[in-house]
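#structure-requests
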Amino acid sequence: MKKISLFLVSFFVAIIAFCQSTGTDNYWQQQVNYTIDVTLNDVDHTLDGYIKMEYINNSPDTLHFIWIHLWPNAYKNDRTAFSDQLLENGRTDFYFSDNDKRGYINRLDFKVNGTRVKMLDHPQHQDIIKIILAKPLAPYSTCKIETPFHEKISANFSRGGHTGQAYQLTQWYPKPAVYDRKGWHPIPYLDQGEFYSEFGDYKVVITLPEKYVVAATGKLTDSTNASAALKTLSFEQNNVHDFALFADKKFIVAHDTLQLPSSKIIDVYAYYLPDAKYNSWSKATQFIKHAILTRSNWLGEYPYNIVSAVEAPMG
Protein backbone atom coordinates (compact mmCIF):
# COMPACT_ATOMS: atom_id res chain seq x y z
CA MET A 1 0.00 0.00 0.00
CA LYS A 2 1.23 3.46 -0.79
CA LYS A 3 2.34 5.48 2.15
CA ILE A 4 0.75 8.89 2.23
CA SER A 5 2.56 11.72 3.93
CA LEU A 6 1.36 15.14 4.87
CA PHE A 7 3.75 17.94 4.01
CA LEU A 8 3.24 21.41 5.35
CA VAL A 9 4.45 23.58 2.50
CA SER A 10 4.31 26.71 4.60
CA PHE A 11 5.79 25.49 7.81
CA PHE A 12 4.29 25.49 11.29
CA VAL A 13 7.08 27.77 12.46
CA ALA A 14 5.59 30.28 14.81
CA ILE A 15 8.77 31.66 16.32
CA ILE A 16 11.03 32.65 13.45
CA ALA A 17 14.22 33.61 15.23
CA PHE A 18 14.16 31.39 18.30
CA CYS A 19 17.33 32.05 20.23
CA GLN A 20 18.85 29.56 22.65
CA SER A 21 20.13 31.34 25.70
CA THR A 22 23.91 31.67 25.72
CA GLY A 23 24.16 33.85 28.79
CA THR A 24 24.93 36.89 26.66
CA ASP A 25 23.06 39.41 24.53
CA ASN A 26 25.17 38.94 21.38
CA TYR A 27 23.08 36.31 19.65
CA TRP A 28 23.33 36.29 15.84
CA GLN A 29 22.34 34.10 12.95
CA GLN A 30 23.20 34.14 9.27
CA GLN A 31 20.68 34.88 6.52
CA VAL A 32 20.54 33.47 3.00
CA ASN A 33 18.16 34.91 0.39
CA TYR A 34 17.43 32.82 -2.70
CA THR A 35 16.42 33.47 -6.29
CA ILE A 36 15.90 30.21 -8.18
CA ASP A 37 14.82 29.68 -11.79
CA VAL A 38 14.22 26.03 -12.72
CA THR A 39 12.65 23.93 -15.49
CA LEU A 40 11.11 20.49 -14.97
CA ASN A 41 11.49 17.77 -17.63
CA ASP A 42 8.84 15.16 -16.80
CA VAL A 43 10.12 12.66 -19.37
CA ASP A 44 13.68 12.39 -18.04
CA HIS A 45 12.65 13.39 -14.49
CA THR A 46 15.22 16.17 -14.38
CA LEU A 47 15.56 19.79 -13.31
CA ASP A 48 17.74 22.39 -14.99
CA GLY A 49 18.14 25.57 -13.03
CA TYR A 50 20.10 28.57 -11.91
CA ILE A 51 20.35 29.71 -8.30
CA LYS A 52 21.49 33.03 -6.89
CA MET A 53 22.08 33.40 -3.16
CA GLU A 54 22.66 36.51 -1.10
CA TYR A 55 24.71 35.29 1.86
CA ILE A 56 24.65 37.73 4.78
CA ASN A 57 27.38 37.20 7.35
CA ASN A 58 25.88 38.43 10.61
CA SER A 59 28.60 36.69 12.61
CA PRO A 60 31.61 38.38 14.25
CA ASP A 61 33.87 36.05 12.26
CA THR A 62 35.64 36.35 8.91
CA LEU A 63 34.68 33.44 6.65
CA HIS A 64 37.21 31.93 4.24
CA PHE A 65 34.95 29.19 2.87
CA ILE A 66 31.30 28.09 2.90
CA TRP A 67 30.04 24.54 3.17
CA ILE A 68 27.26 23.76 0.66
CA HIS A 69 24.66 21.00 1.00
CA LEU A 70 24.01 19.09 -2.24
CA TRP A 71 21.44 16.78 -0.73
CA PRO A 72 20.16 15.27 -4.04
CA ASN A 73 23.52 13.45 -4.12
CA ALA A 74 22.35 11.38 -1.15
CA TYR A 75 20.59 9.29 -3.81
CA LYS A 76 23.63 9.02 -6.08
CA ASN A 77 24.82 5.54 -5.08
CA ASP A 78 24.93 3.06 -2.19
CA ARG A 79 27.90 4.74 -0.50
CA THR A 80 26.11 7.68 1.11
CA ALA A 81 25.07 8.33 4.69
CA PHE A 82 21.45 8.04 3.55
CA SER A 83 22.02 4.59 2.05
CA ASP A 84 23.93 3.44 5.13
CA GLN A 85 21.16 4.58 7.45
CA LEU A 86 18.48 2.76 5.46
CA LEU A 87 20.48 -0.47 5.72
CA GLU A 88 20.98 0.05 9.45
CA ASN A 89 17.20 0.38 9.75
CA GLY A 90 16.59 -2.80 7.78
CA ARG A 91 15.60 -1.26 4.42
CA THR A 92 17.25 -2.58 1.27
CA ASP A 93 15.03 -1.06 -1.45
CA PHE A 94 17.42 1.78 -2.23
CA TYR A 95 20.56 -0.36 -1.94
CA PHE A 96 19.26 -2.75 -4.59
CA SER A 97 17.58 -0.11 -6.76
CA ASP A 98 18.40 0.38 -10.44
CA ASN A 99 20.43 3.40 -11.54
CA ASP A 100 17.45 4.95 -13.31
CA LYS A 101 15.69 5.28 -9.94
CA ARG A 102 18.61 7.03 -8.28
CA GLY A 103 19.35 10.75 -8.37
CA TYR A 104 22.10 13.33 -8.24
CA ILE A 105 22.94 17.00 -8.75
CA ASN A 106 25.77 18.16 -11.03
CA ARG A 107 26.87 20.74 -13.64
CA LEU A 108 27.76 23.11 -10.82
CA ASP A 109 29.92 26.16 -11.50
CA PHE A 110 30.00 28.35 -8.41
CA LYS A 111 30.81 32.04 -8.60
CA VAL A 112 31.08 34.41 -5.64
CA ASN A 113 30.70 38.11 -6.45
CA GLY A 114 31.22 37.22 -10.10
CA THR A 115 34.46 35.28 -9.58
CA ARG A 116 34.60 31.53 -10.19
CA VAL A 117 35.60 29.73 -6.99
CA LYS A 118 37.16 26.38 -6.22
CA MET A 119 34.94 23.51 -5.05
CA LEU A 120 36.30 20.84 -2.70
CA ASP A 121 34.60 17.55 -1.86
CA HIS A 122 33.72 16.73 1.72
CA PRO A 123 36.15 14.06 2.98
CA GLN A 124 33.29 11.73 3.95
CA HIS A 125 29.97 12.75 2.40
CA GLN A 126 29.15 12.98 -1.33
CA ASP A 127 26.25 15.36 -0.71
CA ILE A 128 28.40 18.15 0.80
CA ILE A 129 31.05 20.36 -0.80
CA LYS A 130 33.10 23.36 0.29
CA ILE A 131 33.53 26.49 -1.82
CA ILE A 132 36.70 28.48 -1.19
CA LEU A 133 36.14 32.24 -1.17
CA ALA A 134 38.59 34.17 -3.35
CA LYS A 135 38.18 37.11 -0.96
CA PRO A 136 37.38 36.48 2.73
CA LEU A 137 33.89 37.50 3.82
CA ALA A 138 34.26 40.01 6.64
CA PRO A 139 31.88 40.20 9.60
CA TYR A 140 28.58 41.97 8.91
CA SER A 141 29.09 41.89 5.14
CA THR A 142 27.38 40.19 2.21
CA CYS A 143 28.41 38.15 -0.81
CA LYS A 144 26.57 36.94 -3.91
CA ILE A 145 26.79 33.20 -4.64
CA GLU A 146 25.47 31.71 -7.87
CA THR A 147 25.62 28.53 -9.92
CA PRO A 148 23.78 26.61 -12.59
CA PHE A 149 22.70 23.10 -11.65
CA HIS A 150 21.26 19.98 -13.24
CA GLU A 151 19.38 17.47 -11.14
CA LYS A 152 18.21 13.94 -11.81
CA ILE A 153 15.20 13.51 -9.53
CA SER A 154 15.30 10.15 -7.76
CA ALA A 155 12.35 7.89 -7.19
CA ASN A 156 10.78 8.73 -3.85
CA PHE A 157 12.70 6.56 -1.42
CA SER A 158 12.49 9.07 1.41
CA ARG A 159 10.90 12.50 1.79
CA GLY A 160 11.13 13.74 -1.75
CA GLY A 161 11.59 12.66 -5.35
CA HIS A 162 9.07 11.45 -7.88
CA THR A 163 6.50 8.68 -8.14
CA GLY A 164 5.90 8.37 -11.86
CA GLN A 165 4.99 11.90 -12.96
CA ALA A 166 4.09 13.08 -9.47
CA TYR A 167 6.90 15.25 -8.10
CA GLN A 168 7.80 16.05 -4.51
CA LEU A 169 10.69 18.52 -4.56
CA THR A 170 12.17 18.78 -1.08
CA GLN A 171 15.84 19.43 -0.22
CA TRP A 172 16.35 19.86 -3.95
CA TYR A 173 18.68 22.84 -4.50
CA PRO A 174 22.21 23.82 -3.37
CA LYS A 175 22.01 25.26 0.12
CA PRO A 176 24.70 26.67 2.45
CA ALA A 177 25.16 24.82 5.71
CA VAL A 178 24.41 26.67 8.92
CA TYR A 179 27.19 28.67 10.54
CA ASP A 180 26.44 29.57 14.17
CA ARG A 181 28.31 30.25 17.39
CA LYS A 182 29.45 26.60 17.41
CA GLY A 183 30.87 26.84 13.89
CA TRP A 184 29.84 25.08 10.68
CA HIS A 185 27.21 22.35 10.55
CA PRO A 186 27.70 20.40 7.30
CA ILE A 187 25.16 17.58 7.68
CA PRO A 188 24.50 14.77 5.18
CA TYR A 189 20.94 14.01 4.09
CA LEU A 190 19.32 11.29 6.21
CA ASP A 191 15.95 9.58 6.03
CA GLN A 192 15.64 9.69 9.81
CA GLY A 193 16.52 13.13 11.14
CA GLU A 194 15.72 16.81 10.79
CA PHE A 195 17.23 19.65 8.77
CA TYR A 196 19.15 22.64 10.11
CA SER A 197 19.09 25.57 7.69
CA GLU A 198 19.42 29.34 7.66
CA PHE A 199 16.32 31.52 7.30
CA GLY A 200 15.89 33.79 4.31
CA ASP A 201 13.65 35.18 1.58
CA TYR A 202 12.78 33.10 -1.49
CA LYS A 203 11.82 33.93 -5.06
CA VAL A 204 11.32 30.74 -7.07
CA VAL A 205 10.27 30.45 -10.72
CA ILE A 206 9.44 27.07 -12.22
CA THR A 207 8.63 26.22 -15.83
CA LEU A 208 6.87 22.91 -16.41
CA PRO A 209 4.25 21.21 -18.61
CA GLU A 210 0.99 23.12 -18.61
CA LYS A 211 -1.23 20.36 -17.20
CA TYR A 212 0.48 20.21 -13.80
CA VAL A 213 -1.11 21.59 -10.64
CA VAL A 214 1.61 22.98 -8.37
CA ALA A 215 1.69 23.43 -4.61
CA ALA A 216 4.63 25.38 -3.25
CA THR A 217 5.89 27.36 -0.29
CA GLY A 218 4.60 30.92 -0.22
CA LYS A 219 2.41 32.96 -2.54
CA LEU A 220 1.89 32.50 -6.27
CA THR A 221 2.82 35.92 -7.67
CA ASP A 222 2.70 35.27 -11.41
CA SER A 223 1.55 32.65 -13.93
CA THR A 224 2.31 32.86 -17.65
CA ASN A 225 2.37 30.54 -20.62
CA ALA A 226 5.94 29.95 -21.68
CA SER A 227 4.62 28.18 -24.81
CA ALA A 228 1.54 26.25 -25.89
CA ALA A 229 2.74 23.27 -23.85
CA LEU A 230 4.54 24.96 -20.95
CA LYS A 231 3.71 27.41 -18.18
CA THR A 232 5.86 29.42 -15.82
CA LEU A 233 4.88 29.98 -12.18
CA SER A 234 6.49 32.41 -9.73
CA PHE A 235 6.37 32.03 -5.94
CA GLU A 236 7.64 34.25 -3.14
CA GLN A 237 7.98 33.81 0.61
CA ASN A 238 10.00 35.74 3.16
CA ASN A 239 11.60 34.50 6.35
CA VAL A 240 11.47 30.72 5.95
CA HIS A 241 14.28 28.17 6.14
CA ASP A 242 13.31 26.02 3.16
CA PHE A 243 11.27 25.88 -0.03
CA ALA A 244 9.21 22.83 -1.06
CA LEU A 245 7.39 22.29 -4.32
CA PHE A 246 4.92 19.58 -5.40
CA ALA A 247 3.56 19.01 -8.91
CA ASP A 248 0.88 16.53 -9.97
CA LYS A 249 -1.59 16.51 -12.85
CA LYS A 250 -4.24 14.90 -10.64
CA PHE A 251 -4.33 17.29 -7.67
CA ILE A 252 -7.72 18.46 -6.42
CA VAL A 253 -7.40 21.87 -4.75
CA ALA A 254 -9.49 22.95 -1.77
CA HIS A 255 -9.32 26.50 -0.43
CA ASP A 256 -10.62 28.22 2.67
CA THR A 257 -9.69 31.14 4.89
CA LEU A 258 -8.98 31.31 8.59
CA GLN A 259 -9.23 34.28 10.96
CA LEU A 260 -6.55 34.17 13.62
CA PRO A 261 -7.06 35.53 17.17
CA SER A 262 -5.40 38.81 16.11
CA SER A 263 -8.10 39.15 13.39
CA LYS A 264 -5.50 38.48 10.69
CA ILE A 265 -6.99 36.36 7.88
CA ILE A 266 -4.86 33.73 6.14
CA ASP A 267 -5.46 31.44 3.16
CA VAL A 268 -5.68 27.68 3.73
CA TYR A 269 -5.07 25.24 0.87
CA ALA A 270 -5.23 21.46 0.60
CA TYR A 271 -3.94 19.56 -2.43
CA TYR A 272 -5.08 15.97 -2.62
CA LEU A 273 -5.63 13.07 -5.00
CA PRO A 274 -9.00 11.89 -6.31
CA ASP A 275 -8.75 8.31 -5.01
CA ALA A 276 -11.84 7.75 -2.84
CA LYS A 277 -9.81 5.52 -0.55
CA TYR A 278 -8.37 8.66 1.01
CA ASN A 279 -11.58 10.69 1.15
CA SER A 280 -10.73 12.07 4.60
CA TRP A 281 -8.80 14.64 2.58
CA SER A 282 -12.12 16.18 1.66
CA LYS A 283 -12.05 17.58 5.21
CA ALA A 284 -8.40 18.59 5.05
CA THR A 285 -8.95 22.34 5.29
CA GLN A 286 -10.86 21.80 8.55
CA PHE A 287 -7.96 19.78 9.95
CA ILE A 288 -5.43 22.38 8.84
CA LYS A 289 -7.36 25.23 10.46
CA HIS A 290 -7.65 23.31 13.71
CA ALA A 291 -3.90 22.59 13.66
CA ILE A 292 -3.03 26.23 12.97
CA LEU A 293 -5.21 27.51 15.80
CA THR A 294 -3.90 24.88 18.23
CA ARG A 295 -0.26 25.60 17.48
CA SER A 296 -0.85 29.34 17.48
CA ASN A 297 -2.19 28.93 21.00
CA TRP A 298 0.79 26.83 22.08
CA LEU A 299 3.64 28.63 20.32
CA GLY A 300 2.51 32.05 19.16
CA GLU A 301 0.39 33.12 16.25
CA TYR A 302 1.10 31.61 12.83
CA PRO A 303 3.29 34.24 11.11
CA TYR A 304 2.60 33.61 7.40
CA ASN A 305 -0.28 34.50 5.10
CA ILE A 306 -0.72 31.03 3.56
CA VAL A 307 -0.64 27.46 4.81
CA SER A 308 -0.84 24.47 2.48
CA ALA A 309 -0.97 20.72 3.01
CA VAL A 310 -0.27 18.18 0.29
CA GLU A 311 -1.16 14.52 -0.11
CA ALA A 312 1.81 12.94 -1.83
CA PRO A 313 2.29 9.34 -3.02
CA MET A 314 5.51 8.17 -1.39
CA GLY A 315 7.85 5.35 -2.35
